[in-house]
Amino acid sequence: MKLSTKLWGGMLCAMLVAHGHGAQAQTSKQIVQQAVNAELAANHDDNSHWRYLRTEAGGNSMIIVETENGAISRHIQINGKPASAETLAEEDQRTQKFIHDPAEQSKQRANGSHDDKSAVELLNLLPQAFVWKVENETPEATTLHFDPDPNFHPPDMEARVMGQMSGTMVVDRKQHRIRTFKGSLLSDVTIGFGLLARIKQGSTFDVERRQVSPAYWEITETHVHISGHALFFKTIGQQEDEVKTEFTLVPLGTTLEQAVGLLKAEAK
């Protein structure tokens, strides 16, 4: 989608200024498209699974181990205190039930595939959903600001919400990978005149990604604060603050039973 350029009169200098702004906008868009292409290519070739520590606001932390058949977890702390023996016993029981229940494993994988598909669809929309402008450049990264593009026609509700955001994105200049993507909702987004759903202005998100090994990037921080209502005044809210650290690759072919042993060893 081409970005429109205003021409102020027929003066040559004004035409040159307008041309300069158009080139800058196109360059910004090219940076975004290059980052999107890099992310899609990396995602297509990524069959990795990880063990990592997830720490949530409020003092909850857990070890998570991913495998080809699903992911399992075990708490280390709850509300800032070591997880009790009773809690760990209950979690171990649920884990044993999971690793012997193919239907639950399939359900978890299906949910993950749906989330991945949605993320790819929204990623593809980034270049056209926003008007981009380079804010700052260093040898390591480029920081871009984005505002909604009035010519963008969102294909679904998720894209509609995203398309009303304003914020910044930081792109690694060497690998063209997205390091930071954060923004806030500029106005309420409504469905059915607000009777079916309303996502409130000021809702925010902040996703931080870092290189966790020479060939892999992962989300290391997620901060999401969304409020509103749906289905005739039922309050909705998504308040998420979590940090992921201590990433280590899980060997290919690791079974859920083997992951249990790794999980307990790592959680000691």
Sequence-ordered SSE layout with sheet pairings:
Blueprint: H1 12-44, E1 50-56, E2 60-67, E3 70-78, E4 81-82, H2 85-99, H3 102-129, E5 130-137, E6 141-148, H4 157-162, E7 165-172, E8 178-185, E9 189-191, E10 197-199, E11 204-213, E12 216-230, E13 234-249, H5 256-267
Antiparallel strand pairs: 1-2, 1-13, 2-3, 3-4, 5-6, 6-7, 7-8, 8-11, 9-10, 10-12, 11-12, 12-13
Helix content: 25-40%
Which value, in Å, is the CA radius of gyration?
A: 22 Å
Oligomer class:
single chain
Number of helices: 5
Instruction: Give the helix/strand class.
Output: alpha+beta
Order of helices and strands: HEEEEHHEEHEEEEEEEH
Distance between the termini: 54 Å
- If you average the pLDDT, what whole number results? 84
- Please give the number of β-strands: 13
**Net shape:** globular
Biggest sheet statistics:
13 strands, antiparallel
Low-pLDDT segments: 1-26
Strand content: 35-45%
Task: Describe the overall structure.
By secondary structure, the protein is an alpha+beta fold. The protein contains five helices and 13 strands. α1 (12-44) runs antiparallel to α3 (102-129). Strands 1, 2, 3, 4, 5, 6, 7, 8, 9, 10, 11, 12 and 13 form a 13-stranded antiparallel β-sheet that branches.
Keywords for this entry:
alpha+beta; globular; 13 strands; 268 residues; 13-stranded antiparallel β-sheet; single chain
